[in-house]
Amino acid sequence: MTIIVNHVTSNNVHSGIFEDIFSYFSRYTEQYATHIPSEKPIVGAHIRHYHRPHLEERLIGPCVVTVHHDLNDPDSWLSLDAFIDRYKEADLVICLNTFQQKKLAECGIFNTCVIPHGYNDHLIDAARNLGRNIRNKFTVAVVSKRYARKVKGEAYLFELAKRLDSDNIEFLLVGDGRSEEGRVLRTLGFDVEVYERLPYPALIDAYRGVNALLMTSYFEGGPANIPEAAAMGVPILANPIGMVPDLIEHEKHGIYLEMDPHLDAIMLNELATPNNARYKTLFESSQHPSPNLITWQDSVSLNMKEHLKLLKGKQASINKVLELFA
Hints:
The chain has 13 helices and twelve strands. It has helices spanning 16-28, 80-89, 98-106, 121-129, 154-162, 179-187, 200-206, 225-231, 244-247, 261-272, 277-286, 296-311, 316-323; strands at residues 3-8, 33-38, 47-50, 63-67, 92-95, 112-114, 138-143, 169-174, 192-195, 212-215, 236-238, 254-256.
């Protein structure tokens, strides 16, 4: 028997990240499950997985929800109050990081588990086997979509850049809207490469020439760029929010930003100094990622284990599938 999982998006707003996630679910469970994304719940599904539960008046069980955003984000669209009743209603709430789990516990919600996003090991293993692409300058990557409300730390990035040494540092910017940052950084004297859209395999290959990923967001559920960069052995310079504390150990896999442009610029200029001992040590230790870093196949498997636990006892054939994960 095939398990039917209905991934409910609750509106028709396109999400590239959701498309990728649903693709991974289908790829890694094709022998025993069918995954059907839909705007509204469909009839006949064994379990429903809600991704925007705040847009539903009620959930249809058995069901799980995933927390895709930062629960401290002040945006009214993402207000915790809009989600809380649905989280309480769900059979299980899947968090991407322990910050989310702790926040929900403060709200009296304990039907939770933590399953982070993963990385594509097929692409990353192949890219790592090609070795490093050595560039002339210390290359800092910013990989994220630009938001008008500057939630990704755009203002901080500009203040930081004013204090950085353009003789030693260059930027790689990837994401919708990042041409604006590219324009400003060039006026400050930096060499900049900008790709508003870059195919995923090309992005993974680009990490071969990156010295550090810079993550300056003030609010994050993920972010999705952390697992792939960490798996490529790229040191992460990040605000310690979202998945960062779970996946990145300070001074081992990266450095936690102070989010003070002056202090962080001193640190980054030091790392970018040719033959810097601190960076050499950081890069070497980054080649051995955290055990919390998992592949997309692992992430999907852990999600499916939770789905099947909810279905256990419903049907004998489903129990047989569950035995595969024992």
